[in-house]
Design brief:
Elements lengths: L6 E4 L4 E4 L11 E7 L5 E2 L3 E4 L5 E11 L4 E11 L9 E8 L9 E9 L3 E6 L5 E3 L3 E7 L4 E11 L2 E11 L3
Parallel strand pairs: 1-7, 6-14
Antiparallel strand pairs: 2-5, 3-4, 3-6, 6-7, 8-9, 9-12, 10-11, 10-13, 13-14
Amino acid sequence: SFPGHKRNTFIDNPIELDGSNSVAPEGRKIVSYLWQFTDGTTADTPTVKRTYAKPGTYSEELTVTDSTGAKATNSVMVFVYPLTNAADAPYAETLNHWPIRGIKPGQEVTINFHGRNMTSNITFDYGDGTIEKVGNGDTTEHTYQKPGEYTLTFRGDGPGGHGIFKRRVIVEEK
């Protein structure tokens, strides 16, 4: 799944999100696209036009399914700026984890995160039912008990709106 790179727009200005550069492994083809937007709506086309009424940062997810039924999901961050004071928009300067690959159940995962212009309601969701109130930036450790795909979600509010940032963690079978 490749939903594109970071996108920037202003309030009420249409923007196109493009997942048509997603690829399937050799010998397969992509048979479906599913966009899941932070406002709860969905779309099933490779490209979509969106308009945002509120400033903030949105993490929009695209899941593609190939001809064998295998799925892959990824996110694109959309920065929506007010027409004035655009520098106040929330921004995730860092959201990453280590190790990146080969994570097994019971193994400690180090997660580093930092958001700019996030001043309140800051939480971190590990994707396994664990949600914590956190500061604006930190490093934390987390252990996943079962194999699977988990979505890290770092969110918070600031003077420029609401920010939502996501990253996938894949925990493999032992």
